[in-house]
Amino acid sequence: MTSSKEFIDTINSTIGNVSFATFIVMLLGNKANIDYSWKSLLVLTVILDCIAFGISYFGILLSDNLNVSTKKIFCLMADCIWAWKDACKYSYIASRGEFMYNRKNKWISTTVFCVSLALYYIYIYVTYSVKIDESILSVGFVSFNWSVVALYTFWLLVDVISGYCIMVKFEEALHTNRKLNQDVLMLHNVIHKQQLRLVGICLLMATVTVLSICNTVWGLDLPNIGAIIFVYCQLVLVMNEFKPSRESLKADCINCRGKDKTANALVADG
Length: 270
Prior knowledge:
Strand order of the largest sheet: 1-2
Mean pLDDT: 76
Helix content: over 70%
Distance between the termini: 47 Å
Strand content: under 5%
Structural class: mainly alpha
Number of helices: 10
Order of helices and strands: HHHHHEEHHHHH
């Protein structure tokens, strides 16, 4: 069991490389542009994750020359960035479920962003005890707190509800368009696979979140695989979003000569 934990800890210590590689792939594929669309939330997620991991690794690099309090300041700075990263990620997931119901109304994804950010900063406030002592900032940790349970529970709700909305609404769209020509049917299949992958990611992250909550509340001795799963899910989200491109799907819709309104709506930007 000890060797398994050491193996997982080793992977956790280097998992930031996956985020760095994801950003490089996006950069080389000209997919790192930021605009006002929902997919920019995914771009920001990757960028902020790289910044946070960079701060964390820089603190580790200097750990031999720093005292304990200063080391923990780097952890605090990284957590502050990760708060914005997770807010962007879960806002993106919520936007995909929201998009399936009402493409013009974005208040749900905005609310998810704000609530996730607020809960994460409450977690940071409770987790880190910050004291000003003779103009020196010293940071220390406190023991178990309820804030992490509240944060994980909220993320769990976002994963489950968004996955359910995506699956149910898309199935309704398919069943209301029984008479499809071959081109439109092929387009539906491509989009359907994208939605299924997104639902699978939501379910996987929800499962990991449940295990994390159980581990926190009941003190179960479970392997800490949350960071590993979340970072790889983030990679899959990026690949799922940018391949195939929205431009190619829109071109397919044009080739379908507008015979299926649902297909055109599904590939339009929310």
